[in-house]
Amino acid sequence: MSAHGHVDLGHTVAGWTGTTLALLGFAGAGAAVCAAWVPGIWIGLGVVAVAGIVTWVLHLAGWGKPSGPRPEADWDWRVRDARAHAGHADCLGCRVGGPRRARAAAPRPRAAAPLPAADNAT
């Protein structure tokens, strides 16, 4: 068992790809700052922007995960989400992905949590 307990940490192809590209972009921009190479700074920051776009596209293609915990069988980072083509509920990325996904991903009203009982032992 890991230090985090038995939980879904959300490791996905979209997450790993985006994180790797963003890390490379920030490292490149940081090296360019140290070398005082202005075009390199912009190239590095461009790679970071591309990382966000690539992550979003992979999420829409089913290589991401919906919000919240997943079934334990889907915890492997190589498992593709077959329900992603319709959009995930309460997912901003899916709402931006087009009208069909926006309808499926529209925020749904949540049931009100029951209020705790008042302690009348006075």
TrEMBL record:
Compositionally biased tracts (Low complexity): 104-122
Keywords for this protein: Membrane, Transmembrane, Transmembrane helix
Transmembrane segments: 41-61
Source domain of life: Bacteria
Region feature Disordered, mapped onto this chain: 102-122
Descriptive protein name: Uncharacterized protein
Organism for this UniProt entry: Streptomyces venezuelae
